[in-house]
Specification:
TIM Barrel; tRNA-dihydrouridine17 synthase activity; two-stranded antiparallel ribbon; 14% strand; 18 helices; 412 residues; 8-stranded parallel beta barrel; tRNA processing; NAD; EC 1.3.1.88; alpha/beta
């Protein structure tokens, strides 16, 4: 079998535009199946630890089942590994040959565990090792290798880094437009300008994916048009609302009701083999129901007490309770008026916020000291605009003074 490369590989898997990002313990099989129903056209697995995947049968059994990568249920699929040893990475990748379309190297994880283990975004300091890891798979693995990176503060340095990753053999390049330091409470907005700079300055035939700032379905189209990328990847946006990938302008698909969403997801998990989907279920419920739980705290308590891996009866009770509550809301005489979504003005970052009923899936804005990250960045952008305007005014004043002085000069 010929190993497909670059644009040829992208075409072979259907030129996907909407991609489920690799997320630790969150882009597992059941979630991928659900996301594909809501418009995802390519999925990445959670980040797997290459050394453990290569050496521990128990780890592989926990992370990987007979349905993962199944042609009829879970393709196209990219399997992602974190690694710092080329040999272990190759051993791990060989276990998934035939069950995926490519293997991805994680160069973007910014968490403390990645720093401790010397992988993910902390390999940004070790370019030689990054090149060896990618090139090992490029030259010795039977399927293609891809890579997902974060950016440096300097766009020129980021460009050189991206060129090195491609030169090593990466067939797709995904760029997460955030610094390594932008994580948790410091997440903020991704920088689309630096992503576009990379797109414009890398070879035109590079298969290029953008990641960051996807809150609503229309943000995907805006990203595709603004950056000129081949596809858009979503992590948190997808986790809180899988409908973010839906192209059709339909409220029930783009912002599904949480009662219908938890029921659909629950039924998928019940049928999935292995442990990964069951273990992830509780976390997914908290995210899907995030706007719902502060109002219906009894449901929060049910989720907190549940143990999906050991007792599905607990989960069934949660689903039934959510369905009952939303049914009561939907039977209100003014429900049609209550169940509307309104869109605000375009913000400095290019998108617009929406007011969405709490019984529908919606994006999450991480707060710090009571202020969400998006608002902090917006305020920062306003200050930048004000500073730029002040500088422009000072320049204009100086130019006017020079011009006036020239006029006042005597002529011979």
């Amino acid at each position: 079998m010929t190993k497909l490369q670059g644009r040829e590989l992208f075409n072979a898997i259907g030129q996907p535009k909407r991609i489920v990002a690799p997320m630790v313990d969150q882009s597992e099989l059941a979630w991928r199946i659900l996301s594909r129903r809501y418009g995802a056209t390519l999925c990445y697995t959670p980040m797997f630890h290459a050394k453990l995947f290569a050496t521990s049968e128990k780890y592989r059994r926990d992370m990987w089942s007979e349905w993962d990568g199944d042609e009829s249920k879970d393709r196209p699929l990219v399997v992602q590994f974190c690694a710092n040893d080329p040999d272990y990475l190759l051993q791990a990748a060989k276990h998934v040959v035939g069950k995926c379309d490519a293997v991805d190297l994680n160069l973007g994880c910014p968490q403390g565990i990645a720093k401790k283990g010397n992988y993910g975004a902390f390999l940004m300091d070790h370019w030689d090792l990054v090149h060896k890891l990618i090139n090992k798979l490029h030259t010795e693995l039977d399927i293609p290798v891809t890579a997902k990176i974060r950016v440096f503060e300097e766009k020129e340095k980021t460009l050189e880094y991206a060129k090195m990753v491609l030169d090593a053999g990466a067939q797709f390049l995904t760029v997460h437009g955030r610094l390594r330091e932008q994580k948790g409470q410091k997440t903020g907005l991704a920088d689309w300008e630096i992503i576009k700079y990379l797109r414009d300055n890398l070879p035109k035939d590079t298969v290029f994916f953008a990641n960051g700032n996807i809150l609503y379905p229309e943000d995907i189209t805006r990203c595709l048009n603004q950056i000129g990328c081949d596809a858009v990847m979503s992590a948190e946006g997808n986790l809180y609302n899988p409908g973010v990938f839906v192209e059709e302008d339909n409220i029930d698909k783009q912002f599904p009701r949480v009662d219908k969403l938890v029921r659909e997801y629950y039924e998928i998990v019940k049928n999935c083999p292995g442990n990964a989907s069951k273990i992830a279920m509780k976390s997914h419920f908290f995210k899907i129901l995030r706007p719902f739980l502060p109002i219906h705290t009894d449901v929060r308590e049910l989720i907190a007490k549940s143990s999906p891996k050991h007792n599905f009866d607990d989960v069934e009770e949660i689903v039934i309770q959510v369905e009952k509550i939303v049914k009561e809301i939907s039977e209100k005489p003014d429900f049609a008026e209550l169940d509307k979504i309104t869109t605000g003005p375009v913000e400095l970052w290019g998108g617009a916020y929406k007011q969405i009923p709490y019984w529908r899936a919606q994006p999450y804005f991480r707060p710090v000291n009571g202020v969400t990250g998006d608002k902090r960045i917006t305020e920062s952008l306003k200050k930048q605009d004000e500073t730029t305007e002040e500088i422009d005014q000072q320049k204009r004043k100086a130019e006017d003074e020079l011009e006036n002085n020239d006029v006042k000069k005597p002529t011979n």
